[in-house]
């Protein structure tokens, strides 16, 4: 047998082996896929959807029939933006079961309409309607909107307000400042209302700096009662002036104000 014939025979044999391996891999893969039929989806942490409704929002259609494909599609691709949901995590339990942990958006504020409190999340979606304002959730006033419907986004002209409400609410919780109302004026100025006190934050974006400072003086200021002017407060301008509700005049007839430290 010539060297050339031997070489050609060897190549042909190699091709048959590779083809056989490919067929074997396809058969094994098909067996794996066939054996990973999705039979159970465990959904936890969701309150605004049923487990079935949440799976439908993922938009997987036929993918729901296979555990492995379902898992890969929901871990390797960009996650969908789902109303009321901040994040979700899909975990493979076994060949027939997946677990979905849902992290819903927290309520950041509420609006009062006809005696009911409509709570909304950081994206402005109204999550529920309550007869009483929930604890630690400020009522937001001064918003201009046409309608407010549960499970729909609050339609206001300036959507960036929701980001401001989120920042303010988180800072108030962090520094344990018990405010029950956040008001936005037509000019965009923010005023906080608590028990026996009003806090003028103004309309710049230094809410984090201002509320951090507010946490240190709030208790003393609320005991005195009045209006805290923090519109010009900054790292370079740290004076906080409390104007008492009741007018007090000194011997010169000038209304007095108190510096709170």
Describe this structure in words.
- 31% of the residues lie in helices and 27% in strands.
- It is α+β, with helices and mostly antiparallel strands and 261 residues long.
- It has two domains: 40-104, Ubiquitin-like (UB roll); 107-259, Rossmann fold, CATH 3.40.50.
- Helix 4 crosses helix 5.
- The longest helix is centred in the N-terminal third of the chain and has 33 residues, at 3-35.
- The chain is elongated, with a radius of gyration of 31 Å.
Average pLDDT: 81
CATH topology name of the largest domain: Rossmann fold
Strand content: 25-35%
Give the tally of β-strands. Answer: 13
Helical coverage, percent range: 25-40%
Structural class: alpha+beta
Low-confidence stretches: 22-33
Topology:
Blueprint: H1 3-35, E1 40-44, H2 51-57, H3 67-76, E2 85-94, E3 97-104, E4 107-113, E5 116-121, E6 126-130, E7 139-141, H4 161-174, E8 179-184, E9 190-194, E10 197-202, H5 207-224, E11 226-229, E12 241-243, E13 258-259
Parallel strand pairs: 1-3, 7-8, 10-11
Antiparallel strand pairs: 2-3, 4-5, 5-6, 8-9, 9-10, 11-12, 12-13
List its salient traits.
single chain; 261 residues; alpha+beta; Ubiquitin-like (UB roll); Rossmann fold; three-stranded mixed β-sheet; 27% strand
Q: What would you say about this model in short?
A:
With 261 residues, this protein is of the alpha+beta class.
């Amino acid at each position: 047998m010539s060297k050339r014939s031997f070489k050609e025979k060897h190549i042909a044999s190699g091709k048959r082996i590779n083809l056989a391996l490919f067929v074997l891999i396809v058969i094994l893969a098909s067996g794996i896929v066939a054996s990973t039929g999705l039979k159970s989806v465990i959904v936890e942490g969701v309150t605004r959807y049923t487990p079935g409704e949440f799976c439908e929002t993922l938009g997987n259609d036929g993918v729901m029939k296979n555990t492995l494909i379902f898992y890969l599609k929901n871990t390797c691709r960009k996650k969908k933006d789902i109303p009321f949901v901040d994040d979700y995590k899909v975990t493979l339990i076994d060949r027939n079961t997946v677990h979905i942990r849902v992290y819903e958006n927290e309520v950041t504020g509420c609006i009062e309409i006809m005696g009911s409190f409509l709570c909304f999340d950081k994206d402005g979606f109204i999550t529920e309607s309550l007869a009483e304002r929930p604890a630690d959730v400020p009522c937001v006033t001064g918003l201009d909107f046409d309608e407010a419907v549960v499970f729909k986004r609050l339609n206001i002209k300036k959507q960036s307000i929701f980001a401001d409400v989120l920042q303010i609410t988180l800072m108030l919780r962090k520094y344990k400042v018990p405010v029950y109302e956040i008001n936005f004026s037509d000019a965009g100025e923010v005023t906080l209302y608590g028990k026996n006190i009003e806090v003028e934050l103004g309309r710049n974006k230094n809410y984090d700096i201002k509320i951090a400072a507010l946490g240190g003086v709030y208790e003393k200021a609320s005991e005195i009662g009045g209006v805290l002017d923090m519109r010009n407060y900054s790292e370079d301008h740290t004076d906080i002036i409390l104007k008492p509700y009741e007018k007090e005049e000194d011997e010169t007839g000038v209304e007095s104000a108190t510096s709170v430290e």
